[in-house]
Amino acid sequence: MSRVYYSRRTGKSPEISSIDLDMLLRLFAAVYSNFLNRDYFQEAFGYDCVDAGLVPGIVGSDVGAYMFRKLRRDLWPIHKRVMDFSEDDLFDVIEFLYDLVSKPIGGWFHQFSDCGWHYNQFDASAGRDEFRQEINEILLGYSDGYELNTSGELVFSGDPGLKELLDEDSPEFDPLNVDKKLEYAVRRFRHHRASVEDKQEAVRVLADVLEFLRPNVEILLTKKDAGDLYNIANNYGIRHHNLSQKNDYEKDIFLKWIFYSYLATIRLSVDIISKGSKA
Question: pTM for this structure?
């Protein structure tokens, strides 16, 4: 269970600094150890038995080789190497573990020499949900704030008050011209390594979606207001590259603002248009 405790909930706690990489590695090591000890990786990694010896899991008898094949980096065993991980190492490992975690729900206890539980039934969905909850509790406080989404990808969690806008599921509207472009733009913007160029590309894609919706947007927002939105896209170094473009602004801050503005406008427009078509 994750909740905000008294001093932070009531605003009496002093400002809490963000978690640095060393602390994040320490916190991750504790989370990983907890899930490992509760056999949430037994289905994937297997187990040692006093009678049968090593019983491989679904990744095979050489977990390190499997991990290297997937990540192209030698990071196994995790518990021995974790404190030397780079940020990229850690984020890759978290996504890797999300794919393999599963909650043990059925098996038998091997009493001889107190061998332990040998499971044969697992719930991957439940395991992933629990893993995400624990991991996101520590990721949210790291740097600008990150989260592991339900697709198993590490993404920027979103600016305060705007996370819901990023997480909102759009209704099926126009798969080719709107839906897929919207999904692509949000993923590009939220990627944990998103550069200014990535964010600019995300905004450019949203501007293209607005262009497609423009006839309806002009009805919903009035032609003048819609024109102001497109003026931003067309004249501030977003959609075109020429000498008349305005580029003398703090681009990262500006791109965040216009991305959220475009995304909110698109979501509202799609919602109203969809409801109007059913009226």
Answer: 0.73
Cross-strand bridge partners of residue 191 = 155
Supply the mean pLDDT for the chain.
Answer: 83
DSSP per position, 238-249 = SS--STTS---S
Provide the CA 266 distance to its chain's centre, in angstroms.
Answer: 22
- Selection from 39, 73, 71, 45 nearest residue 57 by Cα: 45
- Are 272 and 217 spatial neighbours (Cβ–Cβ below 8 Å)? no
- Distance CA(64)–CA(115), nearest Å, equals 24
Q: Which of 72-76, 152-156, 202-206, 245-249 has the lowest mean pLDDT?
A: 245-249
Q: Is residue 82 part of a domain?
A: yes
- Shared domain for 167 and 101, answered yes or no, is no
For tokens 């475009």, name the residue: 262
Q: Compute the half-sphere exposure of residue 221: CA atoms within 13 Å on the CB side of its CA.
A: 22
The parent domain of residue 178 ranges over 163-278
Q: pLDDT tens digit string along 79-89? A: 999 999 999 99
Determine the distance from the C-alpha atom of residue 37 to the mean position of all C-alpha atoms in its chain, rounded to a whole number. Answer: 25
Closest alpha carbon to 42 in 113, 135, 111, 123: 123
